Every structure is written in structure tokens, then in C-alpha cells.
Amino acid sequence: MISRDQRTPFSEWWWTVDRVLLVALIALMLAGVILSLAASPPVATRIGLDPFHFFNRHVLFLAPSLIVLIGVSFLSPRQIRRSALIVFVLAIGLIVATLLFGPEVKGARRWITLLGINIQASEIAKPSFVILAAWLFSEAARRPEMPATSMAMMLLLSLVSLLVMEPDFGQTMLVLMVWGALFFIAGMRIVWVFGLAGAAAGGLFTAYLFVPHVAGRIKRFMNPASGDTFQVDMASEAFSNGGWLGLGPGEGIAKRSLPDSHTDFVYAVAAEEFGIVLCLALLALFAFIVLRTLSRAYRSEDLFSRFAASGLAVLFGIQAAINMAVNLQLIPAKGMTLPFISYGGSSMVSLAYGVGMMLALTRQRPKTEVNAIEAAGSYA
């Protein structure tokens, strides 16, 4: 047992971190291991790799992700702000390098290879962007004379501009929604939130008019007969085949044909093999993580911690919701991973960084420490 009287960094972390939230996150990671084993072998076999290639890499990326998650959860809010600034600058640099040197795949440049590892820099940018935006909004609330809101707008435009240049409209919409949620949480006027939503809708309409693959996805969603809807049709069939309890582990049919069964459509594989019951359990687990974080954030007296933890929870929840909605044909297809369930090294490590900061920001801190955090906020 770890005694409360011990004054070590680990004991202080153990008694202040939200252990229930930590267990929920680890449970989600374990579910990802099981579903990777179920969904990835047929994909690897089809492209001539070892059947367990993607599963082995999924487990391999899980180790550094756990280290990042636990390590980041030890940080103080001030350390989180500083690390986020460094990570965001590095991510922006990698996005620029991707635009200049990354390979073009299906008309987009989203990946760059460093030291033999494929990196999607936009995934790394998201959690650090949330932290910086939350910091600026907290400064705007604390010191109205500071042009922090304008700076937050410039931060948004800088990231969105680079994402549109890739182009990656799925990540762009996700970033806009999270920034809008933070804008609202920070107490800004609702008319500005609606204005942001209108601007986002205008941007989407512009993309529909001038970007062929965006127009194609929307047209196929509105009228399936207008193009190739093989993947989403197979995903829907998987839900029908699985029923409530599923066909059983390894008995799925859709994964034998779905090119992205281990990434974008792993939720459909879960439905077919383990049933809608498991899908509802996963949905409940995601909802619990988001609501638990929002509840803890609401009780925080430090504005930055409250905004940042809430923004990270919204980012986590919206990303999961988008992936599940695509699988259920509720929205047009997007290349969005299901957090900790889908295969993807960049996604998993960046998600671990984000939820590690969620754990750090929702730790129980004495009021004197909170006051010290607020006092230091202007200098971080």
C-alpha cells in the first residue's frame, strides 16, 4: 500500500490523480488491443504482410503511449502550458515539412516519414492547440485588457490554414468545433459562437464547390447511387450481421473485404463479431471518460485548468463521435480514428499526450496551490 504520509512524487500523484478515470482509459486501451487482434489480420494478409503485422505494431505503440500518458499526468499546469507551446511549435514545423516534402496520397499530403516512422503531424498539433487556446481564453477572462481572444483567433487561423492546405477537412472541422466549444465555455457571447459556426459552414460549402474529393464524399452520402460506397455499405452490413451479441471472435465477414477495417471501420468489426452490446459498452466508456473529465474540470478553481481539461475532453469525445457516426452512416466518411481503438501510432501517442494532460489538470490540488497556479499563470 502507498501511505498518504509518504511525501514522494509518486505518492502525491497517486493520491491526487483521478484513479477511476485512469482505470477507464486503461480499459479503453485494452479494448483496443482485443479489437486490433480481431480486425487487423485480414488487412495485413491482403497486402502481403505477416497476419499480425498491424496487431504487433499496435501493441508496440501502446508501450510508449502508456509512458507518455503516465509521465504527462505528473506535470503541473504551468509545466503543461510550457510543454504544449514547445509541442505545438514542433507540430507546426512538421506540418510545413509535410506540405513541402511529404508524399501525395489521393491528392493530399498528411504524412511525413522520419527515422522510418510515419508521422501525421496534425494529430500531434491538436492537444497542444487546445492547451494554448485554453490558456489564452483564461488570460482573457482574468485580464480583459489583454488581447488574448484575438491571439486565440490567430492561433486558430494559423492551424486551420495549414490543415486546409494539406488538405484535411476532417481535422479542420474537429479543430473548429473544439475551439468553438472552448470559446463558449470561456463565457464569450453566444452570437460569436453562431458566427463561428456560420463561418465553418461557409468554409465547408466552399470546399464542396472547389475540392472534388470533398464534393464526392458529400454526394455519396446524400445519394449512395452517385458513387462508390463500398466501405460504408460493408460497415452497415456488419452491424446487421452482428445483431445484439455478434457472430463471435474471428467470425466476422466484413473485415475480409474492408480496406480500413483496422482503422476507420474498426467499430463496425466490433459490432459484427461482438455485437451491438459491446458497441454500446464502448460508447458508454467514451461518454463516461468525457463526462467524468468535464465534472472534475467544473470543480476546478483555476480557470486555465478548467478550460484546458474541458477542451481536451471535448476533443476526445468529438473525435470518437465522428468515427462512430461514420460507421453508422450518420455523416459523410472522414479519416478519423476511434481513440485508442483504431490502429495508428501518431494518433495513439498524441491521444495519450492529451489524456495525460486531462489527468494532470483534474488532479485534486490544495487551494493554496491553486492560488499559486493562478498567480503564476501570467508568466507561464
Automatic annotation (TrEMBL):
It is found in: Cell membrane. It comes from the Bacteria. Its EC number is 2.4.99.28. Its main location: membrane. It catalyses: [GlcNAc-(1->4)-Mur2Ac(oyl-L-Ala-gamma-D-Glu-L-Lys-D-Ala-D-Ala)](n)-di-trans,octa-cis-undecaprenyl diphosphate + beta-D-GlcNAc-(1->4)-Mur2Ac(oyl-L-Ala-gamma-D-Glu-L-Lys-D-Ala-D-Ala)-di-trans,octa-cis-undecaprenyl diphosphate = [GlcNAc-(1->4)-Mur2Ac(oyl-L-Ala-gamma-D-Glu-L-Lys-D-Ala-D-Ala)](n+1)-di-trans,octa-cis-undecaprenyl diphosphate + di-trans,octa-cis-undecaprenyl diphosphate + H(+). GO terms for molecular function: lipid-linked peptidoglycan transporter activity; peptidoglycan glycosyltransferase activity. The chain crosses the membrane at residues 20-39, 59-76, 83-102, 114-137, 146-163, 169-186, 191-211, 265-291, 303-328, 340-361. GO terms for cellular component: cell division site; plasma membrane. Keywords: Cell cycle, Cell division, Cell membrane, Cell shape, Cell wall biogenesis/degradation, Glycosyltransferase, Membrane, Peptidoglycan synthesis, Transferase, Transmembrane, Transmembrane helix. GO terms for biological process: cell division; cell wall organization; peptidoglycan biosynthetic process; regulation of cell shape. Belongs to the SEDS family. FtsW subfamily. This is Probable peptidoglycan glycosyltransferase FtsW. It comes from Rhodopseudomonas palustris (strain ATCC BAA-98 / CGA009).
